[in-house]
Amino acid sequence: MKISFSLLIALTLCGFLCAQTKDPIVIIVEYKLTHIIDSTQPGNPYIDNFLLLAGKQSSWYDKYAIGIKKIGRAPAPGTTSSGIPLSAFTDQNKASIYKSIDKHSMFTELVLGKVEYVVSEELPLPEWKITLETKNLGGYLCQKATTRFKGRNYEAWFTNKLPYRTGPWKFGGLPGLILEIGDEKKEVLFNFVSFYTASEGMEGLSENRKGIRISAERYRKIMTAIDNDPAALNNSGGGTGNLVAISVPIGGSLPTMPKPRKINNPIEKNDQ
């Protein structure tokens, strides 16, 4: 069978383009999440920082320490607001959210019991109502938009000066990057912390093809079980396995430890 020269070139070009599956990172955004995970303790919220890495057609989101390592940098010495050393965060305790915006798909990458899973589902597209109200965030003029998403009513601030249709966590679908978003009850709030453009040489974004695929329904059942009994995950080997040392001066006393929080107010509610 003869193959024309033009067809051969086309096949070669196709093979080359198909191999280029990584979307170059363009921007890096840091957010501070404040989440009242225990409704009986509104004054004791969960607080942590997260990184969003965004390209033209995709984005990746996870805790700050894991995101810093993903872009090839070492986190500064210190601990999280929960007292866990930043050095403790590795691929063994990630819970990343990868969005393929051009393919309308979303993948949650997580490790449970030292086994890596990938939850594949359709990219959520909230029904946004864009208003004329504006405010400045980080030097960017942002516009207000509202929606009901995953059981909560949200108010978002996005800027079309950064034309990336994504944001923290599972949010996206606006004609610009979401810099701040929170629910009307002020139980969940993602605040903008910092923004900078990616440097050359950073590895691009792509779907994780190594993990075991599970359905979104199976994932929800697993996370509900963990929320109800976090110790079960630790006993299975899926926890961080880290203890935080507390220094007590001679003759001193142990500091008063905060009351343990229950996880009875997840970000994602049952109704959509």
Automatic annotation (TrEMBL):
InterPro entries: GLPGLI. Pfam families: PNGase_F-II_N (PF22252). Residues 1-19 form the signal peptide. Keywords: Signal. It comes from the Bacteria. This is GLPGLI family protein.
